[in-house]
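Entry 14. Structure prediction run on the chain below.
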Amino acid sequence: MSDDARNARDAAAISTWRRWRMGELRADRENVATEAEAHAAQTRRQGAQRQQEALDALREQVRRDAYEEGLRQGREAGHAEGLAQGREDAQREADAAFEHRLEEEIAPLRELTSQFNEALTALDDAIADDLVELALATGRQLAGEALKARPRQVLELVRALLHTEPPLVGQQRLWLHPLDLRLVEKTLGDELAAAGWRLQPDDQLSRGGCRVTSESGELDATWESRWQAVRDQQRKRRTRPATTGATTE
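Output returned:
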């Protein structure tokens, strides 16, 4: 190496050299401590950030799980409610269909029942009328037989007519069957004569009956008329309930 090169190297070394001081070591330690503290602070921040992120993630997961659970429960509740509503609607429709079908089935039966009741009523009326006619016929026969057995019943009839109020005006004539006339004349002749009655025979009259005539009118007490009065009275009794029911309605 030449002297010039050696001299240049030494000069460069001298120019870079400086004296060491105690403060420089302290400063280096402080720098190292500051860097370590900064690193630790950064580490703590990063850890806190990771913890916060984990906490946020956990909260989000809990929120999501709660949402899913609520949604599931809502679906189940809605499904159950829908099923209940569906059952109720189906039951209502079934009841309506049953009522409609029942009405369709019963309507003809109701009409038949009404017709049957009307037929029964008519039959009852017919039977009742037949029974009444039978009773009247039987009664008439029994009454006729009673007249034959007790011909003096005509005397009671004549006495009742004799005391009828008000009496007929004018000459009064008592018409009787010839056989009854002899019985009445024998028993009540004087009483009838005192009242001014005259006895007249009429072989067209049935025994047990009579007629009283005068200028002012007539009293018909023949057997036929009295029996017809009984029949009319019986008919009135049978028709009175129907007439009353129609008036009430």
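Strands lie at 172-176, 197-201, 210-214, 217-221.
Filed with the rest of this week's runs.
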